[in-house]
Write a structure and sequence with these properties.
Blueprint: E1 8-13, H1 16-36, E2 43-48, E3 60-62, E4 65-67, H2 72-84
Parallel strand pairs: 1-2
Antiparallel strand pairs: 1-3, 3-4
FE2/S2 (inorganic) cluster (FES) is lined by residues 13, 15-18, 50-51, 53-54, 57, 59.
């Protein structure tokens, strides 16, 4: 990892709409991914409250890029892409 880079920040909306529409499962999926691949030092997870974008939810952002309508399949795809990026994260699940 580049010493100038901090941990990759994943911000997940924990507002009631996003949480009910999938971020509850997405949170568990991300936590399992971090555990499975020993990424605790590489990823910083943050929760946020409703951002008034509920209709596009469930919403989360990874490295400052916001994603809407994040299904579990889409999240797995995003995590897999991270594993292939220069950040050196794993994403083979
Ligand atoms: S609950 Fe996530 S944007 Fe409203």
């Amino acid at each position: 990892m580049n010493p100038n880079e901090g941990p990759l920040e994943i911000v997940i909306c924990l507002g009631s709409s996003c949480f009910a529409r999938g971020n509850s499962e997405n949170l568990a999926t991300i936590n399992a991914h971090v555990q499975r691949h020993g990424l605790k030092a590489s990823i910083r997870m943050t929760g946020k409250l409703c951002q008034d974008e509920c209709m596009q939810g469930p919403n989360l952002s990874i490295g400052g890029k916001t994603y809407h309508g994040v299904t579990e399949a889409k999240l797995r795809e995003l995590l897999e892409q991270l594993g292939k990026s220069s950040r050196g994260l794993h994403g083979t699940d």
